């Protein structure tokens, strides 16, 4: 995560919190501000199983300076009719099926300022 954030230019990390709940369970909360005041919030709950990092829950929310939604990926189970339930992506005017993208892709999408359906 830190390497992906460090590779971005023109961003400010407003907050970075790693909350270790147990030796194998953690929550991650990050707020990244872009030069044009877009905000990306990254929230993840993860657990280590063996040598694998497993995502229990996630939310990647990007909004503009006026707090209007650009995109949000999340695993909240509120669209049971979508393929791939509960994973989906919110866009300003619709919600589409989408698996959890890698963080580097989320950061790149937020940095580009584009909200495209996957």
Helix and strand arrangement:
Blueprint: H1 2-6, E1 11-22, E2 25-34, E3 39-49, E4 52-63, E5 69-74, E6 88-90, E7 95-97, H2 103-112
Antiparallel strand pairs: 1-2, 2-3, 3-4, 4-5, 5-6, 6-7
Mean pLDDT: 90
* Low-pLDDT runs: 114-118
Coarse shape = globular
How much of the sequence lies in strands comes to over 45%
Major beta-sheet overview: 7 strands, antiparallel
Percent of residues in helices: 10-25%
Give the number of helices: 2
| Overall number of domains | 1
For the terminal residues, how far apart are their CA atoms?
A: 22 Å
Q: What's the Cα radius of gyration?
A: 14 Å
Structural class: mainly beta
Number of strands: 7
Q: How do the helices and strands follow one another from N- to C-terminus?
A: HEEEEEEEH
With strands numbered from the N-terminus, the spatial order across the biggest sheet is 1-2-3-4-5-6-7
In short:
With 118 residues, the chain is mainly β. Helix content is 13%, strand content 48%. Residues 114-118 have low confidence and may be disordered.
């Amino acid at each position: 995560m830190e390497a992906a954030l460090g590779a971005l230019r023109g961003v400010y990390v407003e907050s970075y919190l790693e909350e270790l709940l147990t030796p194998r369970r953690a929550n991650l909360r990050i707020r990244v501000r872009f030069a044009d005041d877009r905000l990306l919030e990254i929230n993840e709950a993860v657990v280590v199983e063996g040598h694998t990092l497993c995502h229990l829950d996630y939310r990647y929310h990007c909004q503009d300076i006026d707090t209007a939604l650009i995109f949000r990926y999340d695993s909240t189970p509120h669209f049971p009719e979508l393929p791939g339930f509960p994973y989906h992506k919110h866009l300003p005017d619709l919600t589409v099926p989408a698996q959890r993208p890698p963080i580097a892709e989320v950061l790149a999408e937020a940095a580009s300022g584009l909200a495209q359906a996957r």
